[in-house]
Write a structure and sequence with these properties.
Helix content is 23%, strand content 29%. By secondary structure, it is an alpha/beta fold. Strands 4-3-5-6-7-8-9-14-13-12-10-11 form a twelve-stranded mixed beta sheet, with helices on both faces. It has a four-stranded mixed beta sheet with strand order 19-18-17-20. β13 and β14 form a beta hairpin. The protein is globular. The N and C termini lie close together (10 Å).
Length: 397
């Protein structure tokens, strides 16, 4: 495992106790947190968090906007933003894009679904905040050839999209040379980076986007290493021993230093990272992988528990067991699905196609040649409750 400049002399961090005491005092006065923070008098005593609140506003002058996450745990969560929260989110994401070199000299195509997290509406607004021009293309597979032609005709010189969609665009003739290629997600293999750089004429850069937050921009020349802003976020890890630490390897915990409609306190993202001490170059972390009730593909696409359950529910035959095994490789992923039911188990012939059709990103990854799917069936004892097992081979950049 490569350390992230851990040997450098640490500087006095902006993450001192002052802001922590202020934030804790403010949140203790929030009626939504009374129970969770009962008896908590120091930052070190804050328990592992969650998304807090039910959309109720802590400030009656702030309007709120509510979304529901797709959730990798199988339990979708309601997330609320006040207008002040939204302004903070736009400013933070604009700073991350600026770190990647985006600005007023760019006309950027945003080829992403329009939603509350790392995509569409907020990234478009963040680009406008920077003074850049925006082509809000959205994301719909059949429109990609037309979007590619439109990008060329209007002079787009920056593209923001997911790794799988960028890889899918390589199927189209007449490559469009651009100045900036920003991939939204965590892990992008060296093989994909090299292919995209050759096609688009520029080395891709990444924006780290977990479901509830954009956390930072990739450090130039250090693939998979991301810089984050301690004035807006506080990152910690939960070590394998169950200890909360500010450096080392473990599950990433996020605290938002703002957030009126829905505070975020030591919220686990199910992402495994190496969190480095703050140095003269600023705080950084390296993405190592993801745990939880789902799996990720090497193109950055995530498949969560909700999507897997929806796929299984769409099969008319009763499924009592389902095993999903993902094998990663530079040239792509191999997904083996084993479905079990009582004999006989008439699995529809199109079950493989059903899975590929369950997500546009999964379908794009398959069409791009970076995913193969195999389906097997077997007879198992009848169970009252479905048993789901997900195995993902370790992946290291």
């Amino acid at each position: 495992m490569t350390d992230i400049r851990i040997t450098q002399q640490s500087r006095v961090s902006a993450r001192g106790p002052g802001w922590q005491d202020e934030l804790l005092a403010r949140l203790r006065n929030d009626s939504r947190l009374t129970q969770q923070l009962r008896g908590v008098t120091a930052w070190e005593a804050i328990p592992l968090g969650r998304l807090i609140g039910n959309g109720r506003r802590s400030d009656s002058t702030q309007s709120s906007l509510c979304y529901f996450t797709s959730s990798s745990t199988g339990a979708p969560k309601q997330v609320a933003f006040s207008s002040q929260d939204w302004q903070q989110i736009i400013a933070h994401r604009a700073d991350c894009l600026a770190e990647l070199g985006l600005g007023k000299d760019h006309l950027a195509a945003v080829v992403l679904p329009f939603g509350p997290w790392f995509s569409g509406d907020n990234l478009c607004e963040s680009l406008l905040y920077l003074g850049a021009g925006v082509l809000p293309a959205g994301l719909y597979g059949p429109h990609l050839p037309g979007v590619t032609r439109l990008m060329s005709s209007v002079g787009v010189n920056a593209l923001i999209t997911t790794p799988s969609v960028a890889r899918n665009m390589m199927r189209f003739p007449s490559p469009h040379q651009i100045d900036k290629l920003v991939l939204v997600g965590e892990a992008v293999s060296s093989s994909i980076r090299e292919q995209l750089a050759a096609y688009f004429g520029t080395a891709p850069q990444c924006l780290y986007a977990a479901s509830e937050a954009v956390l930072g921009a990739e450090v130039r020349g250090e693939p998979g290493v991301f810089h984050w802003d301690p004035d807006r976020l506080h990152l910690e890890i939960l070590t394998p021993e169950g200890r909360i630490a500010e450096a080392g390897i473990g599950e990433l915990l996020v605290t938002r230093r703002y957030g009126n409609a829905m505070p975020l306190l030591r919220y686990p993202l199910n992402d495994l990272v190496e969190l480095a001490p703050d140095t003269t170059d600023g705080p950084r972390f390296r993405y190592l992988g993801r745990s939880g009730h789902g799996f990720g593909l090497t193109t950055g696409v995530k498949v969560g528990r909700v999507q897997l359950d929806r796929f299984l529910d769409g099969i008319t035959s009763p499924i009592y067991e389902a095993h999903f095994t993902v094998e990663h490789a530079l040239e792509g992923d191999r997904l083996r699905i084993v479905l079990g039911g009582s004999a006989p188990l008439p699995i529809p012939r199109d079950v493989r196609g059903r899975f590929l059709a369950s997500s546009l990103d999964v379908a794009d990854t398959h069409r791009s040649g970076f995913l193969t799917v195999e389906v097997e069936t077997r007879t198992v004892p009848v169970r009252a409750k479905r048993h789901l097992r997900i195995m993902e081979t370790p992946w290291r950049l």
